[in-house]
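Appendix C: a fully annotated inverse folding record. The material below is reproduced so that readers can follow the format used throughout the book. The structure is listed first as tokens, followed by the designed sequence.
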């Protein structure tokens, strides 16, 4: 069966288009990296060294000094966050606008928990909390778990300010699925303790991710997948060395083109704002879709429409791929938890379109999208 690609792809926040070189890389790596890296032969050792060197290169991309953190390879960011959640042994401060793969495993493990308060624009409030009120009875370290860039709205949190607010002794876990290779991750500046990364969000292979955690905390992790005891007993299962190497190559490629990426996407953002003015006037849309000054430049949020219906019509009739919310929320038919946490009603939480760019998108595609969106709303 032959499948046709979308005419316009505006859904990179869900899964970026795979880099064209992935097939070439896979063919190159397969003879060496398909060998089980956990065996005792020279061939296994060669495969294992590829994964070890990939971990070192990943830490360099994150500007993390040698010996400060460890990389645990996972099947994706969801597994990485579930593993990181085992660090939550005391009180928990959590970001209620975050993806459920961050909030659900943490909330289920924590006895004492407090959500950050959220402004209407999605920024976490700092001054309205008495963070000290959760301290101490358990005698265990408190954790703060935050989404760096919100996967639905593009809001980016000020991690240095949050670190100051919660204090130096609080463990800080950051979901970086939407910020890795797109925004600076302040590992040193905010003294982060663990970050979760995704390959498919940057054009790498699907089903590869990583948890980067301070070495001093590794012994506090509890394995979620049991069996062969690979990766120091923290994550059983044979490593996908081909996928790991392609993930890191994709990250290196993205970082090398970061200046071009930012320039292209800022231009698209400006054009988006111009086109949005007409839509606001005609359809009385709520104009909160443009990128905030300190937000993500690849992800825009356009509320005020029946997002699930409109996105389906755009895909089926016009070949335009956008999202109505996060892919997980859409699959379960639930409204956006992010928007509800921001103070929007249940109905409003279901009425939004998410547009997310990559470096291949053009202003012509954006103009056509607005034309087809206007047509869809007219015919609706």
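Designed amino acids, in order:
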């Amino acid at each position: 069966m032959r499948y046709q690609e979308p005419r316009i792809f505006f859904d990179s926040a869900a899964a970026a288009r795979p880099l064209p070189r992935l097939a070439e890389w896979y063919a190159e790596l397969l003879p060496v990296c398909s060998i089980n890296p956990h065996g005792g032969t020279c061939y296994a050792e060669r495969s294992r060294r590829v994964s070890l060197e990939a971990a070192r290169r990943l830490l360099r991309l994150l500007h993390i000094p040698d010996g400060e953190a460890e990389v645990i390879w996972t099947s994706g960011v969801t597994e990485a966050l579930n593993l990181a959640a085992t660090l939550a042994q005391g009180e928990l401060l959590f970001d209620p606008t975050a993806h459920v793969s961050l909030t659900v495993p943490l909330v289920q493990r924590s006895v004492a928990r407090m959500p950050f308060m959220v402004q209407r624009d999605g920024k976490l409030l700092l001054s309205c909390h008495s963070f000290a009120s959760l301290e101490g009875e358990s005698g265990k370290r408190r954790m703060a778990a935050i989404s760096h860039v919100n996967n639905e709205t593009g809001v980016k949190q000020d991690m240095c300010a949050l670190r100051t607010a919660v204090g130096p002794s609080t463990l800080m876990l950051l979901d970086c699925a939407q910020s890795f290779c797109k925004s600076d991750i302040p590992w040193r500046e905010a003294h982060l303790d663990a970050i979760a990364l995704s390959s498919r969000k940057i054009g790498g292979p699907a089903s590869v991710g990583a948890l980067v955690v301070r070495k001093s905390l590794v012994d506090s992790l509890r394995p979620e997948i049991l069996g062969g005891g690979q990766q120091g007993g923290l994550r059983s299962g044979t490593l996908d060395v081909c996928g790991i190497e392609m993930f890191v190559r994709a990250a290196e490629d993205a970082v090398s083109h970061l200046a071009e990426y930012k320039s292209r996407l800022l231009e698209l953002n400006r054009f988006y704002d111009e086109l949005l003015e007409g839509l606001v006037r005609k359809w009385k849309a709520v104009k909160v879709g443009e990128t905030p000054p300190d937000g993500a430049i690849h992800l825009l949020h356009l509320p005020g429409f029946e997002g699930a219906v409109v996105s389906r019509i755009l895909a089926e009739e016009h070949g335009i791929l956008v999202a109505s919310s996060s892919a997980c929320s859409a699959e379960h038919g639930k409204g956006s938890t992010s928007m509800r946490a921001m103070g929007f009603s249940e109905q409003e939480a279901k009425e939004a379109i998410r547009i997310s760019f990559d470096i291949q998108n053009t202003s012509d595609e954006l103009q056509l999208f607005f034309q087809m969106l206007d047509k869809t709303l007219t015919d609706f």
